[in-house]
């Protein structure tokens, strides 16, 4: 059942701040992780009772730490989401259904529960690539307004890698196509193609999708276009011609698509610690609190993806960083503490926050994202995911050395730079990194990613928190340093 979370009760938000205290302990960090990753929270899937429980818990912790509501007078920022699933699809040519063999497959998704397209021009766009194999004859600026665009979802002969068919569908959508349908290479198994098309079919309600998007098998294309003397092999030959240009196919096509669609809200949690200097600037700490919920079918012994390391650990760290900084001397700059929803669905909560921030993004001087921190033991060197890409490195290294931490300068960890919420801010010109020891040991990193990652085995019991608590202490120091204009000047954008 979809849960639409309302504001927390007034008694919760008026809870008294905690008194000043020493640095947090492993036990305090573990208590948050065990709560957030418990079976009672059902894996914290966006829009569920489990996420509602998690967000209430986080908001309560922020209020008790003495943070102010950070989003329009509230701790909760609603994130409107849409999920669509495979339904039924039908294409008729000249008013008749094609005589399709059993190998003919069709997967179409609509932007509404029921969509019918009739009378639209049907345009064949070859491979749908922006440039030809020689880098010329680009039609990147072409418009396809109102058209049904068909394209070959593979790549031309001699091309070993290229844009995915989903990215090409998005390109045609952005250029006005009513429908964008890729014809799958016969060498790609249909189930693999289907899985690729259905990947991350949850998106922000503000995201625009074409009326119809999808894929069909080569056998379906053969059946559809037999009446006009076309088939997959012929379309492939057309696309291979040196002078190929998108062309209209002489067909009368009617498309009917039924798509099950769910609309629901996830929630970001936003707390604010006002600075003493009235600078109008802020440091931002983020972590995503969502995970995959009940992720195995009924009848399995363990059905819940609890997400203890990913990312109850990062969420717990944000809570403890907030609590400790708030209990000490007031920083000069504001500090925002945000936990996001729907990160696992494509960084969607972070995108919503960045698109509708409580303050101008240009006034956020640094973003520190905490994700999957409970891997390494104490003494792990500090790495920066995003090293060399922002002006943050020098002060991060200085603060880490002041904390007695070794520095890992390798750039291999930058392979993860676009796989966390910080990337959303980096793309918008805000300096954003992930800092810590979890990803600097390839063996530990690979062991987690190839093991319990995104599986029910990622549970709180027996977690190694030595490195995680050191990373919490480091982020407390980073928050104080970057919130001090004397230590970190406003970066040039």
Automatic annotation (TrEMBL):
First and last residue of the signal peptide: 1-22
Tree of life domain: Bacteria
Keywords: Aminopeptidase, Hydrolase, Metal-binding, Protease, Signal, Zinc
Chain ranges passing through the membrane: none
InterPro entries in the record: M28_fam, Peptidase_M28
Biological process according to GO: proteolysis
GO molecular function: aminopeptidase activity; metal ion binding; metalloexopeptidase activity
Coiled-coil zones: none
Residues covered by the Peptidase M28 domain: 268-465
Protein name: M28 family peptidase
Organism this protein belongs to: Parasphingopyxis marina
